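Ex. 9. Protein: Cytochrome c oxidase subunit 7A2, mitochondrial.
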Amino acid sequence: MWRNVQALCRISQRTISTASRRQLDNRVSENQKLFQEDNGLPVHLKGGAKDSMLYRTTAGLTLLGTMYAVYYLLVSSMPKKPN
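Predicted structure tokens for Cytochrome c oxidase subunit 7A2, mitochondrial:
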């Protein structure tokens, strides 16, 4: 257990250090070309399949949440029947 804690301390000190071990490629110009391309797609879907899946999931959850809210508004507007 103590070895794991020490290893974690060493790893965390390495990642926080200012010396970078690898340089990241600057891909801004590639992304600008992708998003400025005129292919008839809206900007929120130009990222590909991942963007499309995220959009559909968000739309589905929004629809389900709206239906759930309307259902409970209807249920709460109806008076309860006395037994």
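Check your answer against this statement. The radius of gyration is 26 Å.
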